[in-house]
């Protein structure tokens, strides 16, 4: 199969239309068989549930080429399971987990020409999502839904090398104590837009959200979980019912414990402790780990000893090990790598 003529190394993170997308419709209490289609546009009623009351959930994952030339994805079963949790919380029908993985495989296969080659640093981003599509004017769940998967090639996350970022403690809240912070619903991201635009205006790369109830504990950023390294090399990650359970973070904690022999701890992390950590990183599909060099809390700066030039040594090891597993240089735990072709 011939690859598309794309300058992989200089691709950004934007939408590039690919050839095929997967669609399945839910009507009269059941999902249809689903199919790959060509049309990237969706026609829906002006009163569709998703347009009026934001009834939509999604996932984000990537396909890439390993050193031995296979196209693979990383732990798609966990994305499928997380989408079930998201759908249930928004009173949407569940898209069966095995069908989710099959839809991802079909869509990636159909767009294999857009999967960047090994070594380019680029990936094929995969976006599964579902939404209420029939007219809804009283506030209630829709009766009809559409599940879709599209793909778009995206460039290397760290262009021109890894650079630690500076983040600020946000004055806005991301998630209510018994709200929807733990699911991947569009509504969580709509309300984060003002906060991230404000952070960027103020010269910061990202927001650190604190828990809304007490504003004393570290939660996450708008799109990644935190991972800290203590001065005695223990890995600590915030435990909270209001953060999204990152698949990357769960994988890194496993790697820390089982591949690197480090002590790991998932527990409440108070903001007051942040100044005592040696390293800090943000975990998510996009970057795997993005190092944080500095946290600013209303003018007060916390600078991690790992500095602003490179990843700290432990975060670097974690990054190298997980990306090694993903790329096929290091043996993966059973079931982590789904070979597509
Ligand atoms: C709010 C939030 N937290 C964390 C993550 C990282 O999750 P994952 O590692 O599954 O990509 C994401 C991205 O999906 C996110 O949107």
Which features characterize this protein?
341 residues, alpha+beta, D-amino Acid Aminotransferase, Chain A, domain 1, D-amino Acid Aminotransferase, Chain A, domain 2, 2 domains, nine-stranded antiparallel sheet, eight-stranded mixed sheet, binds pyridoxal-5'-phosphate
Topology:
Blueprint: E1 21-27, E2 30-31, E3 35-37, H1 49-53, E4 56-58, E5 61-65, E6 71-74, H2 76-89, H3 97-110, E7 123-132, E8 145-154, E9 165-169, H4 186-190, H5 193-201, E10 206-208, E11 225-229, E12 235-238, H6 247-258, E13 264-267, E14 279-284, E15 288-297, E16 300-303, H7 313-327, E17 337-339
Bound molecules: pyridoxal-5'-phosphate.
What this model shows, in words?
- The strands form two sheets. Strands 1, 2, 3, 4, 5, 6, 7, 8 and 17 form a nine-stranded antiparallel β-sheet that branches. Strands 9, 10, 11, 12, 13, 14, 15 and 16 form an eight-stranded mixed β-sheet that branches.
- The chain contains seven helices and 17 strands.
- The chain has two domains: 147 residues, Aminotransferase class 4, branched-chain amino acid transferase, N-terminal domain (D-amino Acid Aminotransferase, Chain A, domain 1, 2-Layer Sandwich); 162 residues, D-amino Acid Aminotransferase, Chain A, domain 2 (Alpha-Beta Barrel), CATH 3.20.10.
- Strand 5 and strand 6 form a beta hairpin.
- It is an alpha+beta fold and 341 residues long.
